[in-house]
Amino acid sequence: MIWEVALITAYIAALVIIFVFALTQIQLLRHYLSATRKQKALPQWDLSKGDAYPLVTIQLPLYNEANVVSRLLDCITQLDYPKACLEIQILDDSTDETTGLITELLPQYLQAGYQITNLMRAQRTGFKAGALKEGLATARGDYMAIFDADFLPSPSWLKETLPYFKNPKVGAVQTRWGHLNKDNSLLTKIQAFALDIHFTLEQLGRHTKGYFINFNGTAGIWRKTAILDAGNWEGDTLTEDLDLSYRAQMRSWQIVYLSQVITPAELPDSIQAARAQQFRWNKGGAENFQKSIKQVLRHPGLSVGQKFHGTIHLLSSTLFLQVFTLAILSVPLLVIKQRHPELAWLFWVMNGFGLTTLMLYMTYGLLFQNLHGRTWRTWMKFTGLFFSFFSIAIGFSLSNSRGVLEGHIGKKSEFVRTPKYNDGVLTKEKLRKNYQRNTPWTILITEGLMMHYFAFGLYLGFNVGPEGDFGLIAFHLMAVFGFGYLFFKSIFAS
Predict the structure, then answer these.
(1) Which residues are catalytic, by number?
(2) Closest among 19, 124, 11 to 415, alpha carbons compared
(3) What is the SS3 assignment for the chain?
(4) How confident is the model over 414-444, as pLDDT tens digits?
(5) pLDDT digits over 174-215, tens only?
(6) Shortest CA distance to 35 belongs to which of 213, 276, 281?
(7) Quick one: fold of 47-272?
(8) Among 460, 402, 396, 417, which residue's Cα sits nearest to residue 131?
(9) pTM metric for this prediction
(10) Which of 142, 173, 325, 489 is most buried, with most CB under 10 Å away?
């Protein structure tokens, strides 16, 4: 009986954490809807009426980006901004032909009058954070705009973001990510779905109430003095952007989020790339929880709401561990339920997972309709996306849980960059895929075993007890689909 109680206790604990997260999502939806109905007026420079153009440094951190470097430089040099007030830093840590391509491309931009330099380091110390910090040391700009290699800002991007620095308390401005290839596959569609939730419900909802938000590593711009005042870039976590965001906000700097300014970029279109990106983001989130939570909770200048939402924000990646815990325990709990009918009342409490799913379904559904129109067709499209997203999130929970655990115990790992392919422009013959990593066989085998494990859960649902138990059928179906999707897509991509 002891192990049964332990399993039930672990299941309920994970369920409570997820339930609290769902409640915060509902609260953020209220803040988001309030913000969209009544936009808060913020002070801005009027660059069209003679306000002086500040000196801006654009930093382009690159690591083996041969597929997209030409497109990136062409886009950045199309920005509508005086060349005399614009400095471009290419922060090149590449070990492939990217460096040679940059060397070939630079002369044409120098001849056109652009102040553009290629900074190369002997060692990739600190990964992206180290490159940004080294570039900052020689940057002449008062403001630092940062773009990853696949991001394509519009020509008016600087004129749309810089005016918000008129408020001397603003340390950074973050724009919303767009998606160049969101309709390529089911994988890109659900990534776009998840990112749109983050950049609308979460970023705008938190920003509206003055809670912690985060610079997203790219498609944003920092005040140089804010970076330095917060302690500069640090490479001791895999999400250096989240780290600097919290340190700056605890130094009373504000981050302005502009949902109306969209900066498009590529989404990972392979399971390997998406898995690596998810692992890095979620491990980095756990690392930042360990690094920053004590300062957040002890900070005398923060309200209870700011501390609570900051804690939930820093813990958000740990939700994957809770989801994986629920999934793994759901199968043996079917057996426990049949062996101990006296605990039937407790299983009504455990059905709260269905209630939590319904809460998230309604919350994200209202958000989706607010973005795409209030029609039945929109709701049906959302329903398909939601359950596809939920299923594949369960599939990713295995790898992400490993990242979360490593982040919490302090295990360090390499910053694995996400491959970019300039999809739709370069032909397959011209694509450079030499840096694409294959899925390790241990991950493949484990995900395949998980698919069969939840298929066994489906079997139990029909066969356990005299009448079966169908309470977890839908959940096990999603788990089979999620792990099966990752398993088979990985095999066929190898």
Answers:
(1) 93, 241
(2) 124
(3) CHHHHHHHHHHHHHHHHHHHHHHHHHHHHHHHHHHHHCCCCCCCCCHHHCCCCCCEEEEEEECCCCCCHHHHHHHHCCCCCCHHHEEEEEEECCCCCHHHHHHHHHHHHHHCCCEEEEEECCCCCCHHHHHHHHHHHHCCCCEEEECCCCCCCCCCHHHHHHHHHHCCCEEEEEEEEEECCCCCCHHHHHHHHHHHHHHHHHHHHHHHHCCCCCCCCCCEEEEHHHHHHCCCCCCCCCCHHHHHHHHHHCCCCEEEEEEEEEEEECCCCCHHHHHHHHHHHHHHHHHHHHHHHHHHHHCCCCCHHHHHHHHHHHHHHHHHHHHHHHHHHHHHHHHHHHHCHHHHHHHHHHCHHHHHHHHHHHHHHHHHHHHHCCCHHHHHHHHHHHHHHHHHHHHHHHHHHHHHHHHHHCCCCCCCCCCCCCCCCCCCCCCCCCCCCCCCHHHHHHHHHHHHHHHHHHHHHHHCCCCCCCCCHHHHHHHHHHHHHHHHHHHHHC
(4) 888 887 777 655 444 444 454 555 667 888 8
(5) 999 999 999 999 999 999 999 999 999 999 999 999 999 999
(6) 213
(7) Spore Coat Polysaccharide Biosynthesis Protein SpsA; Chain A (3.90.550)
(8) 417
(9) 0.93
(10) 173
* Sheet strand arrangement including 56-62: 115-120, 86-92, 56-62, 143-146, 220-223, 170-179, 254-265
Q: Hey, how many other C-beta atoms are within 10 angstroms of the C-beta on 111? A: 8
Query: Between β-strands 143-146 and 220-223, what pairing exists: parallel, antiparallel or unpaired?
Result: antiparallel
Task: Please say whether the beta carbons of 179 and 188 come within 8 A.
Answer: yes
Residue partners of 179: CB distance under 8 A and separation at least 6: 188, 191, 192, 195, 264, 265, 266, 267
User: How long a stretch of residues is the chain?
Assistant: 494
- pLDDT value, residue 40: 67
Other CB atoms within 10 A of residue 428 CB: 7
Q: C-alpha 303: how far from its chain's center?
A: 26
Q: Where are the domains of the chain?
A: 2-32+318-493, 47-272
